[in-house]
Amino acid sequence: MTIPDQGLPLSRRETWKTLLAHRTAITPLTLASLFADDPFRADHMNASGAGLFFDYSKNRITKGTLELLLALARECHLPDRIEQMFSGEKINPTENRAVLHVALRSSRDDVFRVDGTNVVPEVHAVLDRMFVFARKIRSGDWRGQTGLPIRNVINIGIGGSDLGPVMAYEALRHYSRRDMNFRFVSNIDPTDFHEATRDLDPAETLFIVSSKTFTTLETMTNAQTARKWLQNALGAGAVEKHFVAVSTNTDAVRAFGINPENMFGFWDWVGGRYSMDSAIGLSTLLAVGEEHFQSLLEGFREMDHHFRLTPLEKNLPVLHGLLCVWEGTFLGSATRGVFPYDQYLKRFPAYLQQLTMESNGKHTSLDGTRVDYETGPVFWGEPGTNGQHSFYQLIHQGTRIIPSDLIGFLHPLHPTGPHHDILIANLFAQSEALAFGRTEADLQKQGVPPALIPHRICEGNRPTNVLLAEQLTPHTLGTLIAFYEHSVFTQGILWNIDSFDQWGVELGKILAQKILPELTGDPEPPLEHDSSTNALIKRYREARLS
Ligand code: F6P
User: Fold this and answer.
1) Which of 73, 151, 381, 435 has a CA-to-CA distance to 61 between 20 and 30 Å?
2) Residue 362 catalytic?
3) Tens-digit pLDDT profile for residues 118-144
4) Taking the model in full, what pTM does it have?
5) Looking only at Cα atoms, what is the longest distance across the chain?
6) Are the C-beta atoms of 265 and 279 separated by less than 8 Å?
7) CB within 8 A of 404, min separation 6: which ones?
């Protein structure tokens, strides 16, 4: 990959220094004063695209802030870097890989090349096989070992091979087959497998073993347990009709005992956390069917086009990404909340945690030096309005500023009395309350006793983005996910880091492999860890023997 010449390190650039100076200038301003100075601020601080409306007026920015951030984005060659991604260049240098999840939702006549080969035909060949398989399962043509149709689907996977499928299943439950059970086993804790299978008949159950590498310890251990559970009930030959695999590793799939004809492939240019619209989405497809799955892919594609073709200043993911950099790096907010006002999106924050934090939790810039600025913030969240009765107190009156994204839909999926109006009134109220707070004068006017006034003041000036879409549909879900994918990309480009590797998770995996035999070995192996780890291992060994 040719990384466009970055010139000076980021923090020594003039635009960077200007942004730092600008931060000092802007600190005394509040959202209240910014709105007072420009009552029509909301009219120009919003953007629309791919069916999403993005109001970013309640950020601690001026027009000048945005201009500087856009200048920095151009200096970082963001438009070229976007083009590099779409052109299949190896923009993940530490793994020497292209990053082409956008090809997963291509239309048949698109062209996306990796090493000179157009990958679109392969993508559609896998999709076509998935559609055929889904038709067989959903129609009952595919029979299990005893001749019964499949009623239960269990996805076994972890990280990107779990979070996307489980989030999408929950998000699209309204569109799913209600006469089938969809469950997800990820944790190595045997409770996960036990609870997922305890009331199921193996004869009606299909396991999808989802693992890009097909070596992940948790997934392979859970898959072995599943195989045993199935074979105990139905005999050794049952794997053929009750196991399929989603992976890039055909040899390992075969070695496990799954017929490669029942394997759905993907490619090393799809990162785990960017894979939910690859074959990793098989459980989603089985749940919602071909038409809805296609519409999910179209939603992704629409946002991809928007991201690729829209000028930076009107580009939703770019604007969002720049605001994340502004809040996190320049204004020092260590976390970002994401609060979907839709119960179906209850797993969306968990999904975004992997997408954002595995991507941008990096301290090394592309040239190998340690960055001297803050990179990816902690992402977290819960659906509204539940969060309001739990942690919002800290956002309103705590000592830390937590910028947040509030996501809502204009039309409910289940119109029921006043529910949806109340839901959306709360979303808008939170955005307003967080921005403008409640002043001493307001409280005096309300006759609040003077001693209580300091406790009831809300300082405001807490930034929020509001994202609105028409309705939660498969299409909308696709656009929303692509919006965050491309925002993450934008942030990574500004920070000059590799958003597509995840070396940090390796160390814990290696140490777990070392500790495992130390917990169970007989005789007790010599322990060479620190005193804390040694003592914990001994305590566990004693409990295990008692
Ligand atoms: O733990 C890191 C990770 O590599 C993730 O990036 C990935 O999504 C997950 O493990 C699962 O990996 P696999 O799909 O290969 O089992």
Assistant:
1) 381
2) no
3) 999 999 999 999 999 999 999 999 999
4) 0.97
5) 78
6) yes
7) 336, 337, 338, 339, 381, 395, 434, 462, 463, 464, 465
